[in-house]
Predict the structure.
Amino acid sequence: MKHRKFQLGILILIIIGVFSVAPAFDFSEIENKVVEFTLDNGLKFIVLPRHDVPVIYCRTIANVGGANDPKDEAGLAHIFEHMAFKGTKEIGTSDLKKEMKWMEEEDRIFSQILEERAKRELADSAKLAELEIKFREAVDSANAYVITNEFGQIYKREGGVNMNAGTGYDMTAYLANYPANKLELWMAMESDRFLNPVLHEFYKEKEVVAEERRMTRESSPQGKLQEEMLAAAFLSHPYGRSILGPMSDILNYYRPSAIEYHKKFYVPSNMVVAIVGDVEIKNVMKLAEKYFGRIPYSPKPRQVMTIEAPQNGERKVIVREKTQPMGWCAFHIPSTRHPDMIALNALADYIGQGRTSLLYKKLVKEDKIAMHAAAFTGYPAEKYPTLLSIISVPAKDHTNDECDTEIIKIIEQVKTELMSAEELDKIKARAKANLINEIAQAGGTFTGLAFNLAYYDIVHGDWRELFRQIDKINSLTAEDIKRVANEYLDINKRTLALLEPEVE
């Protein structure tokens, strides 16, 4: 299992790449072969038969991510990325009845621990210590019945590869590649973990998540900068919260609360399954009904309603660490569904993607004041209004201030000067070449056609939007890019996060 910010990765893949003109590619031929059907319980399937190799690429995306986490339990979506491979009522346990007895004891004791912790300064430390001992005994007793990684063992034994999962702010994705003759096995196992989830080793796994937070956030200067930047940029919207959750929330995760969260969001009406590969549509429909059709209907949960208020001034945060300095400035932009996003993606390409970008040529190549400089859209996610970011890493003996001065000049340049037709053609060619590559390959890990069909349906609102991107890119003009630069890149309304060397 790997934690991924795949929204960012997809967008970067779309806007950077080769400089050659994209070859002719018939999108309609692929689009017309895609079959969509929905079960009575609301679960949508998107299927594309491709018989070139006897392999199937299966992608399940739940329309729930870090943005949907409860206020006091931030990171729950992320822990379900981990729990997805722990097993079900049939998989991952040697004796479910006995294990459940001890799991109930775990929950009972931990509930008491939470009650005592809630007293804060008035908590009885002796009582807490006694409860912790009893709790650890219950955890050890429950875990004695766990068959570690049985889910993964079955998967590998039957020829599966690249089993993975990832959590973003917008969604949670589960991925698997199987030999084509194992479609029914995948259907049985995948449906079972949503029909009969058992949170085996829940309290053990949250310790793994706590360590992940220590390594990637609390012990990482860049991780600290990331969290400070998002918290400053988003005062209301959940994009401003850590996708891993604060340590206090992680340590207080309570399995009954997690189960209620799962019942609300991981339901058929809130998920999409995409299958690309050597399959027959009738067989897919038959097996989908047999296995996924068992999952009861539950209404689609309401998505995030909070709207981030307009930023009316510059916000600045500084993180001081014994490390290389780094600057990160961010501007608010719309969600991926907004018509301006194609132009904003192109603007980010022009400013800071690759060795021909304005940032690289000026800061890295000519002035040699930066080791690295880049611009990108869609971080931390893109279903809701998001950010266009510019990152710079000063070269030795140079500073964030020097880099920022030149970044501001480049921003003013793109707001006043129209890019050349030649430059626009290169940007379009890169965007189209990378999009075609995404569609041409059946299934990567967090890329590829199988993933993108489900991703576009969840995040863009319709999988068909994937095939409409070329027309949108083709219609892009230099005037469009200049216009969005003026509309969104207001230096006086940016968020600036700086990683500065610690003062000795």
DSSP finds 19 helices and eleven strands in the chain.
